[in-house]
Amino acid sequence: MPIATDPLSRIFFALADPTRRAMLERLAAGAATVGELAEPFAMSRPAVSQHLGVLEQAGLIERTRQGQWRSCALRPEGLDDAEQWVTEHRAAWQSRFDRLDETLAALVAGERDAGSASDAHHEASDAGPSDTSTTDQADASVGDPKEQ
């Protein structure tokens, strides 16, 4: 799978994997060695290193080496681009949801209005015989075709 080239795509690609998100959550508590990060996962060290490489390329972590120890630390500013993108688009999405809510409310209100008019018609016809109106006479004259 080709790695994304723009910074925002790299961030979202890195966040798309649950293993990498778990590693970021662990690093939120403080720096950790590669071994500490690998501990909860049943995967090889090269696979862990590959995940860390994706996080580093996205700018979400920083890897350092001190002697034989390799440690990783969270870079919270790495999420700034993603946060800015979501913030910019949230207003447009919210506006669309608000319009959808208004449309649905109008449809429901229209159904209620149509339903109460229909209910009133049914109540009048279910009320039983009353003085004969022209509508009742017209309905009575239609009848069943077999009777004609």
From TrEMBL:
<protein>
    <submittedName>
        <fullName>ArsR family transcriptional regulator</fullName>
    </submittedName>
</protein>
<dbReference type="InterPro" id="IPR001845">
    <property type="entry name" value="HTH_ArsR_DNA-bd_dom"/>
</dbReference>
<feature type="compositionally biased region" description="Basic and acidic residues">
    <location>
        <begin position="111"/>
        <end position="125"/>
    </location>
</feature>
<feature type="domain" description="HTH arsR-type">
    <location>
        <begin position="1"/>
        <end position="94"/>
    </location>
</feature>
<dbReference type="InterPro" id="IPR036390">
    <property type="entry name" value="WH_DNA-bd_sf"/>
</dbReference>
<dbReference type="Pfam" id="PF12840">
    <property type="entry name" value="HTH_20"/>
</dbReference>
<dbReference type="GO" id="GO:0003700">
    <property type="term" value="F:DNA-binding transcription factor activity"/>
</dbReference>
<dbReference type="InterPro" id="IPR011991">
    <property type="entry name" value="ArsR-like_HTH"/>
</dbReference>
<dbReference type="InterPro" id="IPR036388">
    <property type="entry name" value="WH-like_DNA-bd_sf"/>
</dbReference>
<feature type="region of interest" description="Disordered">
    <location>
        <begin position="111"/>
        <end position="148"/>
    </location>
</feature>
